[in-house]
Amino acid sequence: MKALDIAATAVNAGLYAVLGVIFYYIFPLTAPGIGTVRFWPPVIVPAVLAALFGPWVGGVGAMLGIFVSDMFIHGNPILSLMAGVTSNFAGFFLVGYLSKKTIDWKMPMVAFGVINVLLIAVTEMVLVPGGLLSTVEGLVFSVVIVATYVILIFIAVSSGKWRSYEMGCMVGLLVGAAIIGLMVPVFSLFFIVPGQTLLAPLSVSAGLWYLVWTFSTEIPFMIILGPPILEACYKAFPSLKPSRKE
What we know:
By secondary structure, this protein is mainly α.
């Protein structure tokens, strides 16, 4: 990594950790019903820096930042290493990698549509009947998923400028959310989940809820706030404009 990348990684990690801790103590929201996984708008920080400086800055900065914030918030390094560090590194590495690519957007859009239908099906056919979500909560999350996809289509069709970034956010966050949905229940098989006093293994449905919660509460911030923030950065520092590769 170049000196600029090292500095950007440090800024990424520091901002992500500090803003994450501040935000959590102001709005200590977690996945309804089972807790643990936080409402996390600070994801916009590594998303933007990944797009500006590339995958390593995005991934390494995010994993360091989430680990530091986890130690302040729940203090369990094993859970952080299993779920937070792995999901953040993989997710924001992909955001940075795909943001630098020229992507044929039509087929990915179809794939994202199928994935969104599956997420809604999980919400309405597994999480609501299983009692993890109320009918109203399920409807809210389904609407968020649909609205996000509509916004993504609008951006992809109306302007090619942000297609790569938006696709990177979708792929990266889906991968990151899937890792969280898998690793938190695995952690619960062997360790006590923060906030609990006894070993209480989480179900597969809980893992699916973490996936839906993480994706649907974070993707709006990434795809809506990302482009205007990036545009401002490009105007201030023209040298940061991406040179996309095939």
